[in-house]
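To the wet lab folks,

You asked to see what we're planning to order before we commit. Fair enough. Below is the target structure as tokens, and below that is the sequence we designed to fit it. If anything looks off to you, flag it before the synthesis order goes out.
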């Protein structure tokens, strides 16, 4: 479900034409204007900070889950930060001296491959029903060439993979437009940086708005092209939801101007007269400028008139969605969210469906809007999930998307729910868009938080929906863990798809039945049937049967205060003691410990954050494996760090030291302690800033060093670092997960290089390294990935040491299509290298000959091997060594 940002609304100037008041009206038609005057922006930020400190969450995006960490005290916009980061990464990868170390490891996608994450928009090719495009909230553009049965990622290397809308040029369908960013008020929305165009069916992309986007939280909510003159491009944009504009190009994207100012949520061209441009303005919490506007002159500036006849009071309107009937000229439909401040209850934010048959001159609220069972179809999420569509061949049939999908067959007189979360009409909740096959208008595809769903009988009394997410690797992970006894068994918490359990050898995943959004996971290191998961705000659960069922495990946690403010982060951190499986720790505004497998939690600190904002609470924890008395924790918006050196003492005796002196005043996203030296720890910060990156302490946090890099070639870009992992076998090797992939340091954080190839430019939320050297990356939008943590440089270093009989780990691992097995001999001998399946059957003999003393390698090909774990063996005389390798298909 969508996470509402509730709290203090901004006090903005109102009036009949608020959008024309200074600060909303651009005086520069050749450039997208700043959303507000400088003074107003300062007041907005101050208001947001006051709201957070007062214990409520502001409605402004500076407090959104992904926007705030990246903009808090940032010294550049998100768009600027992404572009500069990409340029720096490209510079590093082009350095010949660094290329081998960077590209030796190849990342492999491990799933889920058929459980979709949030899809914002779905579009059929205008004439070929086999071609469908899907835009993911943070996973980019996907394409199907078999009507949606299978999907392929098309935009993994774009600076941002947040797709708000798609448009296809009818005059040349190979031209695809992707508007980036989410313009709704959801906690985990991801930023955009303009409008991208592909001229080859999605294979390559160019940002045609790069030079005009200047807002931190830019989002394109809708894109329209003139059907006969594609030089005219219209983009409905918002900046933080509070302002924005209709941005238009008349020369195919060479130049842009804002032709109407305000938070534009939708734009629509009359299918019978595309010079008539309709615009929906929809600030979430109501505003006098909200409503429908019409230009009859292709959207020229100053030609828009507001359509108000029988439409509701603009201050009562929130989000707005529109559609035009293809079969009945002059017929339009509008679905509206009620501004939350006017809603009877938090869940009743449905305002109604309005129709017109005279091009918008007069409107009628449909009788079905007043059905009692329609009041909660949005459930306070109308800003986040709302669409309305006419059936292409029947204007009497209207579809509405909210939590579920609803349909009227009598022009809005009555509505019936036609999708549910289970059963034959099952389609995952939170509907964002729908489209219809150009060859059969009763074939409809839905885009929701659960991916893509299709029905072949849209007008049937009870349509049957099927999930069509094969290849749609768009899961938005927040965190993950692996089973220590079987490291290829993994689990992770996700956005609105709960927690998921997977086997990377088989590619099989299943969704676990607990909560709505998932979070941190901890596997019991002694009993594989036991593991722990969480959903929003400290809602922990435990399974003792391998995930078949769960029970609550939050007794003793003060999750809210007396006023209902959450005292835990939305994604609540918790960890298990490294040797005692009955001891776990979690942090909210206080630190808690359980010593009996979460039967009850006991606080082991006072209030350490002093805040009632969930974003100010603990974001991450780390315990030292070599000295389990030492536990570190970092907080978010409050920018504090803490350490205890006696965390296993009696609860009342545990002491905490605040240790953030020397850390920047940025959102602290991650902390990782050295596995054996508890005085050494690393912190990752989440901002786009010159002081953002990795910080290191060697004295329990008394001092911190900014681990930026010693040369331009080996510097971390100025981008967010959301995850850190230390390789225990060589703690000088550290991995950093960023908004632009993974970086590696081979000298304890002193210098950094981009790590590996094949990983999309996606936010990395978590990194984990298994005992057999698998590095996992949980991404927010492109699922889970893996590679070998063994660097080529490490293999080479091992080969330079005094030789002995040894078998190295293959690299890359997991692999497909091939991998290299290194081995060394201290003296010349006849050697045999063989490959076995997990049952011990010999599959191949890779080497069977005499080799001289020295270092050697042999390549193994995955041809003929199915996904799974294999054993390879080095044998010479009576000496033998074995290791495992993984093939992924």
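Sequence we intend to order:
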């Amino acid at each position: 479900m969508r996470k509402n940002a509730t709290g203090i609304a901004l006090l903005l100037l109102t009036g009949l034409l608020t959008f024309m008041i200074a600060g909303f009206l651009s005086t520069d038609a050749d450039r997208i204007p700043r959303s507000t005057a400088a003074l107003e922006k300062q007041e907005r930020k101050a208001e947001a900070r006051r709201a957070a400190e007062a214990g409520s969450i502001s409605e402004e995006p500076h407090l959104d889950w992904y926007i705030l960490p990246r903009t808090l005290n940032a010294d550049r916009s998100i768009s600027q930060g992404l572009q500069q980061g990409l340029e720096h990464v490209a510079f590093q990868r082009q350095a010949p001296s660094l290329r081998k170390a960077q590209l030796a490891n190849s990342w492999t996608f491990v799933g889920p491959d058929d459980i979709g994450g949030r899809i914002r928009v779905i579009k059929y090719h205008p004439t070929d029903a086999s071609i469908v495009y899907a835009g993911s909230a943070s996973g980019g553009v996907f394409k199907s060439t078999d009507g949606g049965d299978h999907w392929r990622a098309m935009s993994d290397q774009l600076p941002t993979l947040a797709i708000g809308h798609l448009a296809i040029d009818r005059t040349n369908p190979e031209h695809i437009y992707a508007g980036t960013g989410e313009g709704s008020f959801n906690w985990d929305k991801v930023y955009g940086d303009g409008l991208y165009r592909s001229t080859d069916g999605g294979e390559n992309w160019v940002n045609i708005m790069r030079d005009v986007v200047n807002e931190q939280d830019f989002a394109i909510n809708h894109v329209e092209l003139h059907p006969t003159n594609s030089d005219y491009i219209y983009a409905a944009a918002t900046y933080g939801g509070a302002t924005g504009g209709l941005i238009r190009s008349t020369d195919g994207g060479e130049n842009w101007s804002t032709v109407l100012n305000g938070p534009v949520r939708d734009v629509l061209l009359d299918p019978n007269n595309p010079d008539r441009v309709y615009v929906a303005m929809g600030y979430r919490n109501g505003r006098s400028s909200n409503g429908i506007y019409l230009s009859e002159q292709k959207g020229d500036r100053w030609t828009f008139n507001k359509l108000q006849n029988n439409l509701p009071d603009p201050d009562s309107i929130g989000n707005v969605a529109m559609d035009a009937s293809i079969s009945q000229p002059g017929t339009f439909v509008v679905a509206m969210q009620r501004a939350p401040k006017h809603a009877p209850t938090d869940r009743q934010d449905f305002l109604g469906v309005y129709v017109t048959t005279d091009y918008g001159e007069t409107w009628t609220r449909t009788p079905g809007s007043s059905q009692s069972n329609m009041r909660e179809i949005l459930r306070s999420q109308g800003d986040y999930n709302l669409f309305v569509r006419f059936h292409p061949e029947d204007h009497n049939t209207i579809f509405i998307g909210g939590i579920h999908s609803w349909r009227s067959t009598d022009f809005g007189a009555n509505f019936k729910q036609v999708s549910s979360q289970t059963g034959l009409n099952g389609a995952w909740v939170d509907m964002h868009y729908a489209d219809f096959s150009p060859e059969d208008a009763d074939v409809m595809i839905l885009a929701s938080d659960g991916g893509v769903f299709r029905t072949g009988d849209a007008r049937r009394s009870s349509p049957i929906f099927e999930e069509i997410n094969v290849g749609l690797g768009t899961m938005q992970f927040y965190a993950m863990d692996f089973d220590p006894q079987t490291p290829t068994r993994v689990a992770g918490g996700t956005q609105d798809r709960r927690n998921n359990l997977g086997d990377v050898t088989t590619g099989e995943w299943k969704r676990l039945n607990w909560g709505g959004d998932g979070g941190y996971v901890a596997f019991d290191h002694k009993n594989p049937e036991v593991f722990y998961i969480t959903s929003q705000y400290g809602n922990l659960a435990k399974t003792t049967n391998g995930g078949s069922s769960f029970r609550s495990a939050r007794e003793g946690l003060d999750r809210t205060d007396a006023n209902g403010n959450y005292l835990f982060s939305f994604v609540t951190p918790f960890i298990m003691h490294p040797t005692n499986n009955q001891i776990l720790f979690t942090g909210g505004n206080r630190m808690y410990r359980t010593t009996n497998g979460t039967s009850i939690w006991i606080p082991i600190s006072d209030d350490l954050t002093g805040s009632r904002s969930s974003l100010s609470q603990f974001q991450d924890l780390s315990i030292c494996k070599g000295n389990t008395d030492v536990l570190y924790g970092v907080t978010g918006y409050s920018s504090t760090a803490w350490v205890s050196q006696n965390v296993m003492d009696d609860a009342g005796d545990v002491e905490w030291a605040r240790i953030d002196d020397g850390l920047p005043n940025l959102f602290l996203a991650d902390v990782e302690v050295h596995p054996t030296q508890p005085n050494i720890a690393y912190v990752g910060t989440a901002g786009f800033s010159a002081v953002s990156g990795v910080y290191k302490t060697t004295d329990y946090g008394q001092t911190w060093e900014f681990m930026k890099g010693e040369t331009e070639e080996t510097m971390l870009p100025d981008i967010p670092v959301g995850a850190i992992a230390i390789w225990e076998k060589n703690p000088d090797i550290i991995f950093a997960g960023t908004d632009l992939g993974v970086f590696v340091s081979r000298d304890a954080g002193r210098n950094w290089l981009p790590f590996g190839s094949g990983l999309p430019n996606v936010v990395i939320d978590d990194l984990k390294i298994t005992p057999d050297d698998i590095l996992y990356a949980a991404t927010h939008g492109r699922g889970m990935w893996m590679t070998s943590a063994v660097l080529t440089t490490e293999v080479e270093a091992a080969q330079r040491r005094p030789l002995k009989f040894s078998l190295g780990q293959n690299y890359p691992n997991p692999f497909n299509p091939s991998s290299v097995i290194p081995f060394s001999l201290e003296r010349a001998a006849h050697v045999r290298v063989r490959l076995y399946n997990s049952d011990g059957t010999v599959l191949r003999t890779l080497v069977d000959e005499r080799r001289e003393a020295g270092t050697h390698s042999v390549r193994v090909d995955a041809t003929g091997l199915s996904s799974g774990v294999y054993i390879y063996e080095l044998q010479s005389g009576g000496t033998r060594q074995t290791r495992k390798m993984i093939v992924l298909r």
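Structural context that might help your review: The chain has five helices and 63 strands. The two ends are 32 Å apart (CA to CA).

Thanks,
Computational group
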